[in-house]
Amino acid sequence: MSDNPEDICPRPSLAPPTKAEPLVPPLHLAAVYRCHDPAEADALMSGREPGYVYARDGHPGADVLAERCRELHAADRAAVCSSGMAALALVVLATLERGDHVVTSEMLYGRTLNLFTAELPRLGMTAGVVDPCDLEGVRRALAAQPTSLLVVETISNPLLRVVDLAALAKIARAAGASLLVDNTLAGPAICRPLGFGADWVVESLTKAMSGHSDVVLGLVCGRDANWSRVPTAMSTWGLTSSPMDCWLAMRGLGTYALRARQSMANAQTAATMLAGRGEVSRVSYPGLSDHADHALAARQFDGGFGSLVTFTLTGGRAAADRFIRAAKAIPFCPSLGDLSTTLSHPESTSHRGLAADERRRLGIDGGTIRLSLGIESSEAVLTALEEGLAAV
Ligand SMILES: *Cc1c(COP(=O)(O)O)cnc(C)c1O
Q: 338 C-alpha to center of ligand 1: Å?
């Protein structure tokens, strides 16, 4: 190096002179990587040699994180993208064509439903909507029209209905459709949909997998046979993740199993307490024996029922307003999967786009509150809920 301060800027040979191995994965913020000669550039860009050239095509942070998630889902392939919605868009853009028909669950995350029923038709595709818990209805919908893709969520929001993945995979296969499962609300701690025959699994890593509400990322897992167009579609449509977010998500993932266990135990405790209260007309939690899908969930899930609990206050919207103001230890944050217990109000947030009678049909009214349980002590959770209920 030169001792001229003006020459500090140009960048060759900045690596520190050490062979020490950091315990923590390095953070590579680089947007571009140096090629040693044109032959190497050609080998890297064609994919003949593993490595990196331009971060939109791929970067080490995304690969390290994707590999961990691939293992968690026992998948052939995994890719991390810029959000959960980007992950869903990636499957669409890599696999569907103009003229294709998609059948989706009517209980999908709002933006997902929008993607399939409003955006896809703009691109020349069609979408039908079904109740994924009505297997006969799903079979009829797939028989009515050649279908490329069936889209469901393992656990729906906010009523936490659980779908029968093995049965849906069988129905999809018989009809020549692929099954895409959004597994965000279950997570790999309790459910690996590929093992039940799903072709694609998508998760929002923004939620419990990262777990600290400080990144936005998504995951796609799939099979070798379906994967060929995924890397090109990711780079061409610009769905690539940020290295900083991947690094933070890796750190969060290290405690994922512990957090999942504690938050699910808190969910069971909270659901049981709320189910015994007069201020509450209805509690939805798959871990309660009166939930419509309890037996299915017990069979399908691996030692847990998720960390969300939805309940409806007898006093309607006014009661919900009072509960939310009084439960000061439970922030009203319309997301889920944070370290701390949070709550959301579906009528005013996730389901505000629906007509009132449509919400009522789904079992949502102004008194409905959805909890996302965190990793506090169960005593802290119960105290926080009591504070809310006392004001109702
Ligand atoms: C949050 C969420 C998404 C979207 O993920 P983003 O990371 O916010 O883009 C998709 N599906 C479900 C079930 C979600 O909860």
A: 13
Q: What is the pTM of this model?
A: 0.96
Span from the CA of 87 to the centroid of ligand 1 (angstroms): 9
Query: By C-alpha distance, which of 366, 373, 352, 387 is closest to 114?
Result: 352
| CB burial string 107-128: b at 16+ within 10 A, e below | bbbeebbebbbeebeeeebebb
Q: Is 338 a catalytic residue?
A: no
Mean pLDDT of the chain: 95
Residue of 69, 88, 109, 201 best suited for mutating to test ligand 1, as the one with most atoms within 8 Å of CB: 109
Alpha helices in the chain (DSSP H): 38-46, 60-72, 84-95, 110-114, 120-122, 135-144, 165-174, 230-236, 243-253, 256-275, 294-300, 316-326, 356-362, 378-391
Task: Report how far residue 233's alpha carbon sits from residue 88's, in angstroms, rounded to the nearest whole number.
Answer: 12
Q: Is 33 a catalytic residue?
A: no
Write the DSSP assignment of 185-248 as a string of letters. TT-TTT--GGGGT-SEEEEETTTTTT-SS----EEEEE-GGG-TTHHHHHHHTT-BPPHHHHHH
Q: How far apart are CA 88 and CA 182, in angstroms?
A: 8
| pLDDT tens for each residue of 131-176 | 999 999 999 999 999 999 999 999 999 999 999 999 999 999 999 9
Q: Does residue 54 carry a catalytic annotation?
A: no
Residues with CB under 6 A from ligand 1: 83-85, 109, 112, 153, 182, 184-185, 204, 206-207, 216, 218
Residue nearest to atom 8 of ligand 1 (CA): 84
